[in-house]
Specification:
alpha/beta, TIM Barrel, 3-stranded parallel sheet, 10 strands, globular
Length: 323
């Protein structure tokens, strides 16, 4: 019986319950969704929410501010279904020259983040505390803004990733950053430090653990990538975009959007997600949201010493909660 048939016949929970293998302690899987500002892509988000329901998992969903502003009812539905809400820039996805948090000024970054934060909060009634930079283009200035705006988590540092000109991460400044969640240095995101932000890096095996890679290399090779990461980290962060599950002709993209990528957008891509989640279940991962990354799970003794005075062991922070 193939993976797809299995995943359609049974709604398999990814919380360490059911007939799958017993999960190793702390073997965490984060299913994350990046909602770029692409008019028409909201249909893909609805499909992904239904997929999460089938597998009984809760996702972390990052919204571009303009997406949240355009589809407030859908943002609210995500919260009502138990998913984590985060932000993903202001208008990322609909711009010819995209938002670049690596080089933008402090004031510009603060404006983008504030507008996105306000849009998600207005739509849902909950102030988001999780951020992902568009294209994973992040810098030390971004960390400063996130701290000052009350964020607790980020998932942007492209550790162990280099797309070799095929994707958006074509720089190696943060290649050597930790794979596991950590508190970064305010002066260098590549190293642990005393920031109040918990960084949860999107997983990579040179290429990212995302739908684009899965579609390109196929499930079997993707499984080997996951196995390689699993030998080095207890945390696996996967991401995809709602636009990838809607025909390109039914969406509005900027002229700079790759035609090759547009040709690969289809509702059929949900089959890849079903197959992946079935494999993740069998591999023994426990699905969780980014805000359920408890500080005690961070394997960095140096950080534990720095924060021992103000972190409760085993405590999990939630939206809007003060540290």
């Amino acid at each position: 019986m193939g993976w797809t048939e299995r995943s359609r016949q049974a709604a398999l929970p990814l919380k360490g319950q059911g007939p799958g293998r017993a999960a190793k302690p702390g073997k965490q899987f984060y299913f994350t969704i990046d909602c770029d500002w692409v008019p028409g892509s909201h249909v893909g988000l609805v499909s992904l929410l239904d997929c999460c329901d089938r597998f009984r998992i809760k996702a972390t969903i990052f919204f571009a501010g303009r997406f949240a502003e355009a589809y407030p009812d859908l943002v609210r539905e995500c919260l009502q279904r138990g998913h984590q809400l985060g932000t993903h820039g202001w208008a990322h996805g609909g711009l010819e020259e995209d938002e670049d948090f690596r080089i933008a000024s402090y004031e510009q970054q603060r404006q983008w983040i504030r507008r996105a934060t306000d849009a998600v909060e207005k739509a849902s009634g909950v102030r988001p505390v999780v951020f992902r930079a568009p294209n994973l283009w992040i810098g030390e200035t971004t960390l400063r803004v996130l701290e000052e705006e009350g964020y607790h988590y980020d998932s942007s540092v492209p550790a162990r990733r280099f797309d070799m000109g095929l994707g958006r991460v074509h720089y190696v400044k943060y290649f050597g950053a930790p794979r596991d969640p950590y508190h970064p240095s305010r002066s260098n995101l590549n190293h642990p430090g005393d920031s109040s932000i918990v960084e949860v890096p999107p997983s990579s095996c040179l290429f990212p653990i995302n739908l684009a890679t899965l579609r390109t290399v196929g499930l079997r090779t993707f499984q080997r990538m996951i196995q390689w990461i699993g030998q080095r980290s207890r945390h696996l962060v996967f991401y995809c975009h709602p636009s990838e599950f809607v025909l390109a002709a039914e969406q509005a993209f900027p002229r700079s959007m790759s035609k090759w990528n547009q040709k690969r957008m289809s509702p059929r891509n949900l089959i890849f997600v079903d197959d992946l989640l079935a494999h993740i279940h069998e591999a023994g991962y426990i699905a969780t949201r980014i805000t359920n990354t408890a500080t005690r799970q961070i394997d960095l003794p140096r950080v534990g010493i720095l924060r021992a005075s103000n972190v409760q062991s085993g405590h999990t922070y939630r939206e809007g909660e003060k540290r």
